[in-house]
C-alpha cells in the first residue's frame, strides 16, 4: 500500500539548514535512483512520521516530483523520538525488489499454558516481490503452537506473489520450556579478581599479598 | 552473582568523562520492549543484578529478559582510616558506563502492560532516569 507524501525541493543544503528545516516541522530527504539526478527534498514531519511508524515501505510523491519511491533508509535521533533524514529510491510499479518485512504474532500459544515461553527469534523476513505487492507485515498465527514446538520461516504464510529469500529452515518463533533459574551462591566480589592479560603467575601473587 | 570481566588488560582505570549521547546500543534489538536511560552514568554490577532479580521475579518465566550492558570498568577506593598517599586504591567494584539513550534491558515474549510494570519495578533499582521504548519498525 502506497502512501502519498507532499514533497518540496530543498534549496538550502548542509547541516545548519537541515537543522533549521527540522525546527520548522519538516524532515530533510534525498531522492535518487533509476539513473536520474538526485533531488534534495523536504517533507512535512506530520506526514512522514506516521508512515514510518506503520512500517510502510512504498510512497507516492506529489508536489516537486510525482515519482514512486521506496523508503531506503531512515535516520533517527539517538533517543528514537525524531526522524532526522530519509533516503528514498525511485522505483517503477513493475519493478521487483528485495525487502525486509516485519513479522507480527497473532493469537495465544497453548504451549505457554503448559509452562512454555513464547520467543520470537526473528523479527524480519527478507522477501522479493513487485513494489506494488510489498506486504506491510507478515502475520503468524500461534494459536496451534504447543510446548516444544516451533515455526520455521518456510512455514510462514506469505502472499502468492511474494518470494521468501530468508533461509526457510530458520526458526522464527518457538515455545520452549523455561529452565529453572540457578540459584548461585553470592560470592564475595572483593575476593574474586579477573585475570590480568600478560601478567605472569608470580607477579599476580605479589600484588595479592 | 554480579557480573565482572573474566580477563582484563589493566586492573585499575581512570575515571573518564561521559560525553554525548549513545550512537550505538540505542535500539531494541533482541526483545520487543526496552528500557532506555535518559541520563549518563555508572551502573554498578550489583545494581544490574538487583534489576535482573526484580524483573525476573515479576515475569516468572513468561518472557525473556536481556541485559544489554556489562560492567567493564573497575572502581577503586582507599580503605577507611588510611592516610593519604601510598598510591591508587584497590579495585572495589565494577561498573557499566552508560551514555544517555543506551538501552539497558530488553524484554521479549510479554505484553506491553506486563513490560510496563516489569520495567517500572526494575527502574526503581537504577540510579538513572529511564523510559520504556518499543522496537522500531523503520
Please characterize this protein's 3D structure:
- The complex is a heterodimer of chains A (209) and B (138).
- Chain A is mainly beta.
- Chain A folds into two domains: 3-91, Beta Barrel (Ribosomal Protein L25, Chain P), CATH 2.40.240.10; 98-180, Ribosomal protein L25, C-terminal domain (RNA Polymerase Alpha Subunit, Chain A, domain 2).
- Chain A is 12% helix and 41% strand.
- Chain A contains three helices and 14 strands.
- The model of chain A has no long low-confidence stretch (mean pLDDT 86).
- Chain B has 138 residues and is an alpha+beta fold.
- Chain B has a domain at 33-77 and 93-134: Ribosomal protein L16/L10 (Aldehyde Oxidoreductase, domain 3, Alpha-Beta Complex).
- In chain B, 20% of the residues lie in helices and 29% in strands.
- Chain B is built from two helices and eight strands, in the order E-E-E-H-E-E-E-E-H-E.
- Chain B has helices spanning 45-59, 112-123; strands at 7-8, 33-37, 41-44, 64-67, 73-77, 90-98, 103-108, 130-134.
- Chain B is elongated, with a radius of gyration of 17 Å.
- Chain B starts with 6 loop residues before the first strand and ends with a strand.
- The mean pLDDT of chain B is 93.
- Chains A and B meet through strand 5, strand 8 and strand 14 of A and strand 1, helix 1 and strand 6 of B.
- Strand 14 of chain A pairs parallel with strand 1 of chain B.
Amino acid at each position: 500500500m502506497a502512501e502519498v507524501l507532499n514533497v518540496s525541493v530543498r534549496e538550502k543544503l548542509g547541516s545548519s539548514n537541515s537543522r533549521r528545516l527540522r525546527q520548522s516541522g519538516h524532515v530533510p530527504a534525498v531522492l535518487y535512483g533509476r539513473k536520474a539526478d538526485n533531488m534534495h527534498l523536504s517533507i512535512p514531519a506530520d506526514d512522514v512520521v506516521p508512515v514510518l511508524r506503520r512500517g510502510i515501505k512504498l510512497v507516492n510523491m506529489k508536489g516537486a516530483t510525482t515519482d514512486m519511491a521506496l523508503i531506503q533508509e531512515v535516520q533517527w535521533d539517538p533517543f528514537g523520538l525524531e526522524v532526522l533524514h530519509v533516503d528514498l529510491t525511485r522505483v517503477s510499479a513493475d519493478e521487483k525488489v528485495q525487502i525486509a518485512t516485519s513479522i507480527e504474532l497473532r493469537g495465544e500459544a497453548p504451549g505457554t499454558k503448559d509452562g512454555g515461553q513464547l520467543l520470537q527469534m526473528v523479527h524480519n523476513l527478507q522477501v522479493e516481490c513487485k513494489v506494488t505487492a510489498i506486504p506491510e507485515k507478515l502475520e503468524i498465527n500461534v494459536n496451534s503452537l504447543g510446548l516444544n514446538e516451533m515455526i520455521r520461516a518456510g512455514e510462514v504464510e506469505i502472499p502468492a506473489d511474494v518470494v521468501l529469500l530468508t533461509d526457510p529452515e530458520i526458526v522464527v518463533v518457538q515455545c520452549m520450556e523455561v529452565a529453572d533459574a540457578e540459584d548461585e551462591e553470592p560470592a564475595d566480589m572483593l575476593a574474586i579478581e579477573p585475570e590480568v592479560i600478560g601478567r605472569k603467575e608470580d607477579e599476580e601473587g605479589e600484588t595479592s599479598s | 552473582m554480579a557480573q565482572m570481566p573474566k580477563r582484563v588488560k589493566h586492573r585499575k582505570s581512570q575515571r573518564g568523562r561521559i560525553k554525548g549521547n549513545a550512537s550505538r546500543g540505542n535500539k531494541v534489538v533482541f526483545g520487543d520492549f526496552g528500557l532506555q536511560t535518559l541520563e549518563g552514568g555508572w551502573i554498578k554490577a550489583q545494581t544490574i543484578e538487583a534489576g535482573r532479580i526484580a524483573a525476573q521475579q515479576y515475569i516468572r518465566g513468561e518472557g525473556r529478559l536481556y541485559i544489554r550492558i556489562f560492567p567493564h570498568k573497575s572502581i577503586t577506593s582507599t580503605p577507611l582510616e588510611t592516610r593519604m598517599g601510598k598510591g591508587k586504591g584497590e579495585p572495589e567494584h565494577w561498573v557499566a558506563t552508560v551514555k544517555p539513550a543506551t538501552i539497558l534491558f530488553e524484554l521479549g515474549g510479554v505484553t506491553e502492560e506486563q513490560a510496563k510494570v516489569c520495567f517500572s519495578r526494575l527502574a526503581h533499582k537504577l540510579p538513572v532516569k529511564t523510559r520504556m521504548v518499543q522496537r522500531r519498525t523503520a
